[in-house]
Amino acid sequence: MEQKKSKLSRRGFFKAGSIIVGGIAVAAAFTPFDGILFATEPPKGKGKWYGIGIDINKCIGCGKCANACKLENNVPKEPFYFRSWVEQYTIKNDGSILVESPNGGIDGFKQTVPDQDIFKSFFVPKMCNHCAKSPCVQVCPVGATFETPEGIVLVDENYCIGCRYCVQACPYGCRFINPEKGTAEKCTLCIHRLEKGLQPACFEVCPTEARIFGDLNDPGSKINYFLKNHTCMVIKPNLNTGAKLYYNALSSEVR
Amino acid sequence: MVQHIQDLYEVLSKVDGYVYPNEIELNWSILIVLYPYITGLVAGAFILASLERIFNLHVLRPTYGIALLTALSFMLVATMPLISHLGKPFRAYEIMITPHLTSAMAIFGFVYLWYLMVVLLLEIWFDYRRDMVVWAGETKGLKRFLYKVLSLWTTDISPKAVALDKKLGYIVTVIGVPSAFLLHGYVGFIFGSIKANPWWSTVLMPVIFLFSAIVSGIALVMLVYIVLTRIRKLSIDMACLDMIASYLFYILIMDFVLEGLDQIHRIYEAEESFEVLHNLVFGRLFFTLFIMQGLFGTVIPLLTLGTLQFYKPKALIRKGIYLVVSVLILVGIFFMRWNVVIGGQLFSKSFYGYTTFKIGLIGTEGYLMAAVWLIVPFLILSFLLWLLPPWKKHEDDPDVQVN
């Protein structure tokens, strides 16, 4: 049998070989595209790095936090816009779960389930989780929402185009579009108060001190003391958002 | 504003279970349903045109020009629903000037411009350049001026120049197919990459969007072709139509299989969100998902087109069937987009309840506004067909010369 002679010349072989090897080397030298890696590496703050703790056992559902937030930040009064709100969870004896938050809890709560049917009931204050790997920051097409070096997620309302992508991307429902401004709005951790050395409004008014915030980078801070001494959990940990809102006594029903 | 708040109070009274307070308002309305629908039509129509060119399917020649012009007509309005939906429409340009590269949405402007400028316009230009030069010599007044401008004042229609046009046009088509895939697969990624939303967050979303786009684009070109020949009182090329229908059939099967796979996967894995999604599809989405998308948009066209693969009734009847099937598919894919965009916002991310979608007839986000964005492309198409009639192209007399 006659053996077919390969058409590939030596010169051709080296040429093709060097293109392949060179191409791979060039590709390998490229820095990975940030867009894909965003959600895997949290930004590392060196100075203050704020975290929030909420003790569900201490919350009495007075709704003062939600109200203070609306007053302090000029949030629209209608019950469709909240930077901070309180939910009442009622687990019934038959295992069914009732969640309510009339007007965000601002007007307080009335238990609608008869006492004998209740297995347990508790309040869960909600607010922005100020995630370290925020899905909302990731998806903003113009970079109008960003994370400060202190780990606070903010929106630049002079830059936001109002595409609402961040509202869709927040797993916790913490964002809304301000109906007058047409731009995204959310909890700022009252950064204007923090800069003056004050506490955020919702922390200030909480009568039971169910809310704690502080510097996660400071081993002696209140938040670190809280995290050390309680069994804390974030909501939806499976989403790997790097949430920095830690709850003590968080029940598995809370989402 | 006042009306908006009143509407929200009405929606609030219809909330079922618990939704986060900020979720009562649906953020993406019918205009965002139109966005993937229109870009899908563009990508699908273009891919049909490319079949003729790349795979030398000359039987599809009668629809080549129509498909390209249809793609362009819809492409020109694709961004309009998006921009008019923005809270700050006048800041839309920021997305091009300062794109935030971790955002899937930020790349849209570039993908769009690439597709519009590099692919569609170039391909049409190369395809029509010689004809425009010829037509400029045959017409007078404004039309002549338009042809001169559109052909960029070129006059060389020597066989060599025309051959170069063809070659360059072919290269653009070859680049265009992956671009069309990119355009629509990417639109699917905008939704598929939102991990907060289990109805959207599936790796199959770009592929499903792509195949449904091809299905809708082919159906649209088929419809336009049937209607055009009817208006122009010409006999229709049944071989071409049959070929389009068989492509439509095969791609519809793939689309159906992919969507089925997505649902089977959801049902079998039955993750945390399963109950809320199960109640969603059998509740608030039942009509649009099972009846409009499933039955009318998929099952009936599949069975009809499948039957026609081996049983061929008379041409007139086939034409009628193709007309009905193309309309059904176009309606079905519209509702597919509806079910993704609206469906994905009807349930709470707390998985404890549902909100409703209230849409008015008038207003910037009403039915009429949506209808406008669906009618405008047809007006543009009419203009383009008047200006660049594919049936008047000088295909058969390559030696034609003008001075």
Total strands of chain B: 2
Structural class of chain B: mainly alpha
Main sheet: strand order of chain B: 1-2
The CATH topology assignment of chain A is: Alpha-Beta Plaits
Across the major sheet of chain A, the strand order is 9-1-11-10
How many domains make up the 3D coordinates of chain A? 1
Q: Characterize the main sheet of chain A.
A: 4 strands, mixed
Tell me the CATH architecture of chain A. 2-Layer Sandwich
Strand content of chain A: 15-25%
- At CATH level 2, the architecture of chain B is Up-down Bundle
Question: How is this structure best described in words?
Answer:
The complex is a heterodimer of chains A (255) and B (403). Chain A is 24% helix and 20% strand. Chain A contains eight helices and eleven strands. In chain A, the strands form four sheets. In chain A, strands 9-1-11-10 form a four-stranded mixed β-sheet, with helices on one face. A three-stranded antiparallel β-sheet of chain A has the order 3-2-4, with helices on one face. A two-stranded antiparallel ribbon of chain A has the order 5-6. In chain A, a hairpin with a 5-residue loop joins strand 5 (145-147) and strand 6. The longest helix of chain A is centred in the first third of the chain and has 20 residues, at 10-29. The model of chain A has no long low-confidence stretch (mean pLDDT 91). Chain B has 15 helices and two strands. In chain B, strands 1-2 form a two-stranded antiparallel sheet. The longest helix of chain B has 34 residues, at 159-192. At the A-B interface, strand 3, helix 4, helix 5 and strand 7 of A face helix 1 of B.
Topology of this structure?
The complex is a heterodimer of chains A (255) and B (403).
Chain A: H1 10-29, H2 34-37, E1 50-55, H3 64-73, E2 84-92, E3 97-100, E4 118-127, H4 135-139, E5 145-147, E6 153-155, H5 165-169, E7 176-177, E8 184-185, H6 191-194, H7 201-205, E9 211-215, H8 222-229, E10 232-233, E11 245-248
Parallel strand pairs in A: 1-11
Antiparallel strand pairs in A: 1-9, 2-3, 2-4, 5-6, 7-8, 10-11
Chain B: H1 2-13, E1 16-17, H2 30-54, H3 61-77, H4 79-85, H5 94-97, H6 108-138, H7 141-150, H8 159-192, H9 205-231, H10 238-269, H11 274-282, H12 286-310, H13 315-341, H14 343-346, E2 353-354, H15 367-387
Antiparallel strand pairs in B: 1-2
Helix pairs in contact in B: 2-3, 2-4, 2-8, 2-9, 2-13, 2-15, 3-6, 3-9, 3-15, 6-7, 6-8, 8-9, 9-10, 9-13, 10-12, 10-13, 12-13
